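In response to the reviewer comment on reproducibility (Comment 2.3), we provide here a single inverse folding case reported in full, input and output, so that an independent group could reproduce the run without further information from us. The structure tokens appear first.
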């Protein structure tokens, strides 16, 4: 216990120390929200990766989908690396950085407002962000309860408050730069921790081959009657496996807390390096998490899962490890949660300040007052998420935990297509963005409230989220072609940022 507490205190001290150190870099809105657009490849890549993978992934999703799909759940991690990281950086990175700098936009709603010349679009987008990021944030705490109970035997409420306060201190003090530096430190912990955990868990069951052999002998007629299906290449349910891959991979392209990482990239070289670093990070962390979860059936029974839920699977796998390794795991999960929490806090508070309060109520708000407002709303955002998490825990209101999947689907369904088409296609109209906003967020709300009315295939929030997301790729071009074309001068001015001439070394481009 002493070792665990020492590790925990050291971790918290470093996080708060970084926040206080970075206060000098957070003197205005641009530096507080975007780090002055001078963040290098390592910090940006790790900030992207650590915001991507939280305790929800490590404890909740890895346990749940590992149980359902066996080792084939590793494909989810591979999809996260290839689609959610590699392709996201290649397709979105450079264009996002150029156009957002051209518009001087610091948030996704601010980008929508400038790109489509619509104040109403900006306000609606900011409300969608704020509404759907709060339950997403509250769900981050869920993965910590069982692990802290196993490691320290302390009350879940105390754990939530400690984590929220410490995250709030370094975010409010140091802004994006403190978040990015801490994300880098937390990312290193996550990389080392997940490798150690996977090796330790497999060793406890006789190694990889013995674990795979044991998993091949597991049967569950409710999932599949095929022998060895949980140790197979595509598992018992490849269709639903594909849906999970799409939502957790392609869905990140429409999440504001992820996309905003591209706003702050320093240079062309940073994009290239960041692409490689972010992809490798996702391979290890996401691939490791889902691979580990695939062996969950060797450590839990159907009765225990039915009684305690999917969140009990990963803690059951870890409960017999050494005290030092359990301490590392707790820091791993804390790192995953705090990094994502800080990213969500920054995205929500900056969006509400810059795109709603400033745009609707205080149009001539000075930079100093904007900064104060963002910091104050960060406190409010954290406080609301803590209250929701505690209510959910004490009253077992399960729909709040389920709302995490709804939140992800709603944000991706609303934003992905208008954002992507806005970067690449001049003919995209604000009418198409409005329709996509309301369809994506609306269908996910309907799915949460009236799930039984949906077709069987779409009753799952994950499948419905994928449907909303893919529907956007039809809605945006169709509505754009049917609605009035955008102002040509406005669009040409927006896309002119891609055609600006820059000097590069001959090794990067041959002279004619």
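Designed residues, in position order:
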């Amino acid at each position: 216990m002493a070792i665990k507490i020492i590790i925990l205190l050291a971790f918290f001290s470093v996080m708060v120390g970084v926040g206080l150190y970075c206060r000098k870099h957070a003197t205005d809105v641009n530096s507080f929200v975007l780090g002055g657009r001078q963040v290098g490849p390592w910090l940006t890549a790790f900030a992207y990766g650590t915001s991507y993978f939280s305790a929800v992934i490590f404890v909740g999703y890895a346990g749940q989908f590992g149980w359902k799909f066996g080792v084939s759940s590793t494909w989810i991690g591979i999809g996260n690396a290839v689609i959610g990281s590699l392709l996201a950086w290649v397709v979105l990175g450079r264009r996002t950085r150029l156009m957002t700098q051209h518009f001087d936009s610091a948030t996704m709603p601010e980008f929508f407002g400038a790109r489509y010349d619509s104040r109403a679009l900006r306000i609606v987008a900011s409300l969608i962000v704020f509404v759907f990021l709060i339950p997403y944030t509250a769900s981050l705490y869920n993965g910590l309860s069982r692990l802290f109970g196993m490691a320290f035997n302390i009350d879940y409420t105390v754990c939530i408050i400690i984590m929220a306060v410490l995250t709030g201190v370094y975010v409010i003090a140091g802004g994006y730069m403190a978040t990015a530096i801490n994300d880098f430190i937390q990312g290193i912990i996550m990389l080392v921790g997940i490798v150690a955990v996977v090796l330790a868990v497999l060793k406890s069951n006789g190694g990889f081959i013995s674990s795979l052999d044991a998993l091949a002998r597991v049967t569950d007629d409710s999932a599949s009657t095929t022998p060895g299906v949980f140790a197979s290449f595509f598992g018992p349910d490849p269709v639903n496996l594909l849906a999970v891959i799409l939502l957790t991979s392609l869905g990140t392209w429409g999440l504001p807390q992820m996309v905003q990482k591209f706003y702050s990239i320093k240079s062309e070289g940073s994009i290239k390096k960041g692409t490689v670093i972010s992809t490798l990070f996702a391979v290890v962390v996401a691939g490791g998490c889902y691979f580990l979860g695939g062996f969950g059936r060797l450590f839990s029974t159907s009765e225990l899962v039915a009684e305690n839920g999917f969140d009990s699977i990963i803690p059951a796998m870890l409960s017999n490890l050494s005290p030092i390794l359990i301490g590392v795991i707790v820091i791993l999960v804390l790192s995953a949660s705090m990094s994502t929490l800080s990213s969500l806090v920054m995205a929500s508070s900056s969006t509400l300040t810059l795109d709603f309060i400033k745009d609707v109520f205080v149009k001539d708000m000075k930079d100093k007052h904007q900064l104060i407002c963002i910091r104050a709303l960060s406190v409010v955002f954290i406080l609301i998420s803590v209250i929701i998490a505690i209510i959910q825990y004490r009253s077992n209101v399960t729909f709040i935990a389920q709302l995490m999947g709804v939140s992800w689907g709603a944000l991706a369904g609303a934003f992905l297509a208008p954002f992507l088409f806005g970067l690449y296609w001049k003919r995209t109209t604000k009418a198409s963005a409005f329709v996509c906003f309301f369809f994506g967020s609306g269908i996910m709300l309907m799915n949460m409230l009236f799930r039984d009315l949906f077709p069987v295939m779409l009753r799952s929030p994950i499948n419905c989220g994928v449907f909303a997301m893919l529907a956007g790729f039809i809605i945006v071009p169709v509505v754009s072609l049917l609605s009035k074309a955008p102002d040509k001068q406005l669009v040409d001015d927006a896309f002119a940022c891609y055609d600006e001439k820059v000097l590069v070394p001959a090794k990067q481009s041959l002279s004619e």
